[in-house]
Structures are given as structure tokens and as C-alpha cells.
């Protein structure tokens, strides 16, 4: 058995539809990144992450960096734990409405050129390939992995707050959900 911690990024400096399509963290998000690093470093031996993996997006990389610095290692970048792929025909302005519609249904209901059920399995396989790691990712990717681990079909299986830590054990190549991270008290959108 190996433990994997999956962490949603800290609070970004901007949100969907704003000018910056790859925002970093704001001051609150930077403080959240330092705090979650302290939480993970305080875990007992055998549970404390020994690898740091991140989505390629800046808000995740910046959330992962304090932990990587404290562990004396580089952040490993893996696009498989990145944001949900948006249909190519959608503009940045149309993306929030598309995401809202996706959140209301099942993975198989999402409209686009991608098989989003298969995408959830790919994200889960990626996370499972990092036993012992802290994986910094996104709201929808976290939901994808929780859905695969629990067999849920709803896109919004839960609402992870910024820097919430969701814990999985890897048993015989299967991710077993141990604990959902802290949920947001407000809507993500």
C-alpha cells in the first residue's frame, strides 16, 4: 500500500474569463501554499510525501513549490493531472458556461470532442503512477479521481476548497479514497 495526497491549488490571482489565462497565486494563495506544505511535512513517516508532482498550470506549480523547496527537490510537471480539456471551438468567454453545464451532470453527459469518462480514468492512472507523492491539481481533476475511486458518475462528486488535501491509498494499482479534502463553503463558479 502507498499513500497519495492530491491537493487543489491555492487561490489564484484571477478567475475564468479574466485576461490572464494562466494566473499564479494571489497573496492569500501564496500563504495557503506555505500552510499546506507545513501540513504535509508534519505527517508521520510513511505518510509524508516523498515526491512533488504538479499540473503544468502556474497556480498549481506555485502551490507545489513550497513543499518541493522544503523537501529539497524539483516539482515534477505532469500534464495528465492538468485542467479538464475544453472543446477547441469554445472561446475563453464561453468556457465558464460550458463548465457550469458540465458540473450539473455526469461525466458521460459532457459535450465536446473528448470522451470525458476516459479522461477521468487517465487522470486517475496518472495519480496512481505517483505512489508516495503530493499531486497538485485542479477542482475538476480532483473530482475525476474521486469519481474513478468511488464509482460515482457525477462530475461534481465534491467541492474541494483551495489547498484541500484529498487522500488516497494505492492498493494493487487501484486508488482507494481514504478522505476527501475540505470542501468549499461557496460555489466554485
List the helices and strands and how they pair.
Layout: E1 2-8, H1 27-41, E2 51-54, H2 58-71, E3 76-77, H3 95-103, H4 116-128, E4 133-137, H5 139-150, E5 165-171, E6 174-179
Parallel strand pairs: 1-4, 2-3, 2-4
Antiparallel strand pairs: 1-5, 5-6
Helix pairs in contact: 1-2, 4-5
Core attributes:
189 residues, alpha/beta, six-stranded mixed sheet
Shape category? globular
Structural class: alpha/beta
How helical, in percent, are the residues? 25-40%
Query: How many whole angstroms does the radius of gyration measure?
Result: 16 Å
As laid out across the biggest beta sheet, the strand order is 3-2-4-1-5-6
Distance separating the two termini: 36 Å
Give a count of the beta strands, DSSP E runs of length 2 or more.
Answer: 6
Poorly predicted residue ranges: none
Biggest β-sheet description: 6 strands, mixed
Mean pLDDT across residues: 92
What is the ordering of alpha helices and beta strands?
EHEHEHHEHEE
Strand percent estimate = 15-25%
Count of helical regions: 5
